[in-house]
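Give me structure tokens for this 202-residue protein.
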Amino acid sequence: MSPRGRPRSFDSDAALRRAMLVFWEKGYEATSMADLTAAMKIGAPSLYAAFGNKADLFAAALKTYKAEIGREIWDALSKAATARQAFADFLQQTAVAYARSDQPRGCMIALGVLNGDTDAIPACELLRGCRLENSTLLRARLEQGVRDGEISPSADCRQIADFYATVQHGMSITARDGATLASLQSTADAAMTAWDALTSPR
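Here you go.
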């Protein structure tokens, strides 16, 4: 038995990233503790000691995901000169990120879990909160467009934000189903054809 207080013999950050990939690929409910220990290359006692239970580990993995994955998608909102270009870039970066071959397809936040049994409730609530945060970011960029005179003050920024968030969620599902990059980019282009109707005076 290891002496009390002995430093962990594994890289906890690397192990957490491997757990993130499992949750991202399989979803919360379909991921077993055996899946996690195998991917993280540690025993169950070490997992519980370092990260707590499955729900705690998922929360930590989600935090890592938000910090490290898809930043180019959300950076597009602030880098573009106009709101329209910001949303076009947002969707195009989504297409590129979701079609990458070196990571699970789609989005962990959209696909991690939607509804489940009692054990999955904490994960459901975390992901729901993340999706609401994302819609809030989209709405904030639209409201900036209103202030800049690009978007009509009568436009419903909440509705527009929800629409484009829904498009992104759909792209996540089709990416997981095997959609090509070209197909995802086509969806992004199609969604932008609604821009003028959504942002014009009512």
